[in-house]
Amino acid sequence: MRSALDGVHRAGVPGVYAEVRDAGRTWRGASGVADVRTGRPVTPDMRHRVGSITKTFTAAAVMQQVEQGRIRLDAPIGDHLPHLVPGERGRKITVRMLLNNTSGIPDYIRYAFPSLQGIPDVSSKSLDDNRFRRFHSAELIKLGLDAPPTGEPGGPVGVYSNTNYLLLGQLLERVTGTAAEEYITRNVIERAGLRHTGFPTGPRIKGPHSRMYEALWGALDPPRDYSVYDMSWTGTGAALVSTMPDLNRFYGKLLDGAVVSRSSLTEMQRTIPVVALDGSMIQYGLGLHRLDIPGCGTFWGHDGTVWGAGTASWTRADGARQMSFAVNLQRWNAVDASGTPQHHPIDDALATLDDRALCAPDRGVRSDGR
Questions:
Q1: Catalytic amino acids?
Q2: H/E segment holding residue 15
């Protein structure tokens, strides 16, 4: 594991840190720096913006309301939010379709950050313009709804969209009478016993953390630090801050039936093919990815990116093997004239990290990290 982390750092990531759990034993490690200017090192317990891993927390909160009978998975979203999704669209799109990304509602990010359209001709202008901008969920949702649909509601293949999860946040607020972030904190984060996870209350991260460097497919050279950022642009879709130990604890508790009921977990694990934002195909349930690794098993979890920060957390189906890692560089792949990302040594190094963490033999993983 130490060699694998060092490999990610040598390949070009300023800092990487991880926690691996195996049958009650834990290994934590870190490699590289949290600040390229000062050389301050990363440590395994640093807080990090975990991006779309937030979606699992939001989905779990929705499923709790399903258990209480306040939400029906196959109810039209227009029954709850007619002011946001009116008319025929509101009647066709169900809560389940928002959760598994089959709503046909496009992602809003390219419209909220217009300088990112037209890869490879992108610039950081809108990233910089929006650094301290306070977005309202309704305006971001409208950007997604006003864009051309990605398909018919309930189609056999979904298209990943952050707009869906902002709508789910609004749904939580409507049925609970509580701000979605507050409900998720009290009923998901605290129920799982997480002590270092929460929604940011301002543009700065509280507690020890790394700077977060965005390369923007080669448009920013050197990469620029976006660790100070108003996360209202992503809210209940990707705004959470957490640690790698907290993420492993959360997914362990979730898969053990301690956050939602077993029947809710079964629904969350019903997957369909979904086209991810990078164009790849993933198996997606209700806020959960399924990752099948030949010879290693089936894993459940999520990954996530925001400006400058990337995270992934995977737990084997039997709960015995877990891995969460964070990197403080994003969009390192340069693109060619057609906008296609080019292979980078970081890709290979991360694949090696995944293999060592998820598929390595049980021997050699000790609680002291050696």
A1: 52
A2: strand 15-22
